């Protein structure tokens, strides 16, 4: 089971939809068998869960025990199955397969991590670190050179004009979400599994450097604002008398000026022109995120309860000038499936969020808030994306608690985040720390 989970994580982080298309698997393009429309990682996760149940001496009892311990994820799976039946019965013109990779696999991942051993969790965490670093490096190479590891193909058309990097994680919006979650976890959570303290700041800086080339503006602003806030809080705590390591002092005094010099040089060379132009002229993208709610005006009772038919919704979208489509996961659900089935799905997603909070403690509040904001400004989980599953792996592998800690409610996760440390007194000075003398602390 652990091996299949490990292979599934590797496949999810290295085989994007663009990579599958490049290798001849019609994952995103029209046509092909239903088998090819499901990501290989999903098959591995399902096999791992099935093997975990079957290999148990009492499979039925274990399955019900697992469902009881993962109530939110269980309810999400049930909600997705009911929505699938609803789509098959009343929405024959709309696909339902997106539910598997976009939503259901996130619940399966949570169930798999509920009983994974500490050694396997550590190996997965180290692998996630390696793959995220490789993805950021590839993003920098693609953004600076124009070369792509895999072609950026949408609707069977290669987006040759697109400057945003795709690297390992595929579409820039999904890549930016994963990179943002990873960066926020490293920035705000004290104890992160599988990464030494000395590597944390370089990896955070690497992620921040890659964000402009991946190109999501909302993700960029949230991540940079989060890092700036944490750095500001750390500086205030230093002024109050908190210790600072010698290594961090060297980084601040030597590397920070070099970083500003490098950024200024790249700016003068025009490297960031394409990214900055998206803020100046977004071609109506920001406006469309607000105007999509006009689709709810004068909506009929039937469409409100059961959702639009696909051809009718596409017509309303074009008439509303929404060139990029419905860039809001929640609005996309409501307009396609109506408020009744959508409310059930939302309760399931809320249950999954609660499960994630239980598994990782208060340290996951900021990453989960970030995920919610990004899903609210993109197509997100109303289409076939991995914008719940990839963040789930990052959070559960890096800061998720084991089964014993979750069930007992103990552990350090409750104070394992920057929010819990605000307002605390200065810690006892440790070896290698630099502290202001007592006369300067009054």
Low-confidence segments = 422-442
* Percent of sequence in beta strands: under 5%
Give the overall shape, derived from the CA principal axes.
Answer: globular
Order of strands, widest sheet = 1-2
Got a strand count?
A: 4
Structural features, described:
The chain has 442 residues and is mainly α. 64% of the residues lie in helices and 2% in strands. The strands form two sheets. It has a two-stranded antiparallel sheet. Strands 3-4 form a two-stranded antiparallel ribbon. A hairpin with a 2-residue loop joins strand 1 and strand 2 (157-158). The radius of gyration is 23 Å and the shape is globular. The N and C termini lie far apart (57 Å). Mean pLDDT is 84; it is low at 422-442.
Describe the structure using short key phrases.
two-stranded antiparallel sheet; 4 strands; mainly alpha; two-stranded antiparallel ribbon
Entry summary:
The protein has 442 residues and is mainly α. It has 20 helices and four strands.
Strand and helix layout:
Elements: H1 2-14, H2 17-22, H3 40-54, H4 59-69, H5 71-90, H6 98-114, H7 118-145, E1 153-154, E2 157-158, H8 172-188, H9 197-214, H10 217-239, E3 244-245, H11 246-268, H12 273-280, H13 285-291, H14 301-306, H15 310-319, H16 329-360, H17 365-375, H18 389-398, H19 403-408, H20 418-421, E4 433-434
Antiparallel strand pairs: 1-2, 3-4
